[in-house]
Amino acid sequence: MNWKLIGDLVRLRYKLMWAKTRSRNGKIALFVTGYLLFVLVAALLAAGGLSAGIVAIQSGRAERMAQVVLSGLFLNAVFGSVLLGFGMNAAFSDGELRRYPLRERERFVARHFLGILDPFWFLILALEAGLVVGLYVYGTYSFWNGAIAVLLLFVCGYLLTRVVGVWIDRLMSTRSGSMVVLLIVMSLSLAPGTLTPILKKNPALMREGLAVLRYTPPFGAAAAMIHQRADALLGLGLIAGWAAALAVTLVALERRPARPQQVARGSGSLWNSPFDRVAALFGPRMAPLVGYWLRFYLRNNRFRMLYLFSLPLAAFLTFNLGQMRKGGAGLAVAAMGALPIATFLGTSRIAVNQFGYVGGAFRRFFLFPTDPAASLRAGSYAAVLLGAAMIPPAAILWAVFAPRPLDARVVLMPVVNGVTALFVFHALGLWTTLYGPRRGNYDKSLGNDMSLMGNLAVVGVTLACMFLPMALHFAAPAAVSPANWWLTLPPAALAVAFYAASLRGASAAFPARRERLLAVVEGKA
Amino acid sequence: MTSQTDAIRITNLVKRYGQSLAVEDLSLSVPRGSMFGFLGPNGSGKSTTIGCLTGLLDPNAGEVEILGGRFTAESADLKRRMGVMPETLGLFDPLYAHEFLAFVARMYGLEEAGARRRVTELLAALELTDTRKTLAEFSTGMRKRVAFAAAVIHSPDVLFLDEPFESIDPAGVALLKQWLRRFTEQGRTVFITSHVLETVERLCDRVAIITKPGKLVWQGDITVLANDGAIEHQGRQFESLEALFLHLTGEKYADLNWL
């Protein structure tokens, strides 16, 4: 194994990261990220892992507590990575590494060694380490067993994320892949809601389920932390076995060549494809550009995956946030925030960085005999159109599962909030496209390649959607009561006005940002 | 006012990127109906100049006139009469070749029947008939052909081509040259940048040579070279464009004894 070269590549990765901080935006991003990481690690290490360790010992159920905490962290890391792309950015592709004197095995190790050194994974490791420290300081458990278990679990989490990521990527490039992914995601999102009542009614089933879970990596790690000698070794062996199996699976998956992206074949008609018929709604001048942007979105694996995820995620959030408040009112309040997320999650990555995935083609927008800012507006129209298309199915789904007797106002309120979120998010997307651009890879389905400003827009609006209705429910319950359904209308009207103003403002600012955008999207800045 | 015989006139053009000077007080004129070669070493400002001439970049100073009108990034009427093949090709990768060309045709205001005919003819002539591949899946040479087709689909009066021949096979290059000659015979103008000096020598009738930072060092007629003549410059005779270019831009020799 050429460890020297791999070490040089690791150094190069961090040099490249450091190089990005030379710009003003890069310095701000570094400061904010560093500060957030420091605060998060410190707070979570103390409040999360350590506290869990203390509670585990005081309650006398140390192993169960460790199982729950480690499983939660493990699943959150995997879902957070797959869904939001954290920790999934490969520093170098296999193709890039081929120029160096590295064998296939060394390239594999180098890529994933660089991948696991992402700050996101260190955060997860810090949380898990907190539990080890808590158990060690306040109990009589082996520090070294815990440390090894946590390291192995950390590797397992990374490998599982990669396996899931590559598998989804391969699946999405097949004709029926989108449907399969949708079915799986729907099943996973509805599983907690379906299984919880069943398990509560059947304790025997719960025991059997826990017996099966004993063979998962987090339970193996919990066993290694709590038990001594043979049982601890068995726990460590279990995680090591999982890590080896996942590594083999990853190698096998990566060796299977990715099929070319299956996209809809050109219809032969140059003016009357479904894209162009929809785009024609925007008038003859905008129609070609909107048609292009619709193709750009709909042929993108990343968009299609997130678009498919958005409805199940809305269902999942409605159920889980709704469970936090007992009764139908909880579900209704949760739906008011969860449904709107479906209106922008699919388009989010591209909408906040419209030109970041266009590359050198960005130049062409300035060669056409039209207002160059029309390309910005057309991209936004396409995104709004696609986001709006999610509202009817989401409303129907909510109407089917909403508490009975069905109150039309309970269905209407999330729909109006959906309109609000749709326009607020895409208005912000116009500004982040101009002032927070980042060069991205159109063909990459996974990974978070948004700028800091883009991330703030996506995460900020998502969190606002999730928690604002709940906060209002606590502070002013009347504000989210069906009796006052009309209170959702003024924010929607304001959102539309904000979007319209942003279209005008961003179009006016576009010429001045042109050269900066060009430098960023072509990788010269 | 631009002379009636000039398709392009640049007057005292200056372009800076921050503190760095990319084009320094460049002035030149390109007669209508000419095949004009715009040459210079790497980083000399050729693409920046083309950027200023096509509305991609805003000059810091100076003036650009095209087809008799003052040109800025907002000059939609002039842009309609210009065709551009940018350095980066500017292709929309998720589209198929026929979709892309149809899109470009629509952006230039071509009506459907005419655009359909032109797209079909261009794809056939440039051997781009593989409809199963998106532009992202095309080879470099095929992508270049598509970019060329996009530059000419609306029959422009002035054509800007940034390195048009690199990566295209000899048969393709021969076809493009044939089209370009016919293009100029009809009184239209071609503005080419290229590092392949032999091709420029055979194809172009006028040439401008710039050095870093975008400073004009020579411009003139080179048709004399096609008739086995020589260009005279500062009392010296140059029998090829390459000799003149190396003289003006600085011939370099570095002995790497390990190579």
Structural summary, described in words:
The complex is a heterodimer of chains A (525) and B (259). Chain A has 525 residues and is mostly helical. Chain A has two domains: 3-255, no CATH class; 274-521, no CATH class. Chain A is built from 22 helices and no strands. Chain A has helices at 3-19, 24-59, 62-84, 94-97, 104-116, 119-138, 143-172, 177-201, 203-213, 217-226, 229-255, 274-279, 283-298, 301-323, 328-341, 345-351, 364-367, 373-388, 391-401, 408-435, 452-475, 489-521. In chain A, helix 3 packs antiparallel against helix 6 (119-138) and helix 18 (373-388) crosses helix 22 (489-521). The radius of gyration of chain A is 25 Å and the shape is globular. The model of chain A is unreliable at 264-268 (pLDDT under 50). Chain B is an alpha/beta fold. Chain B has a domain at 1-81 and 186-259: Rossmann fold (3-Layer(aba) Sandwich). Chain B has nine helices and twelve strands. Chain B has a six-stranded mixed beta sheet, with helices on both faces. In chain B, helix 3 (97-107) packs across helix 4 (112-125). Chain B is globular and about 55 Å long. The interface between A and B is large, with 37 and 42 residues.
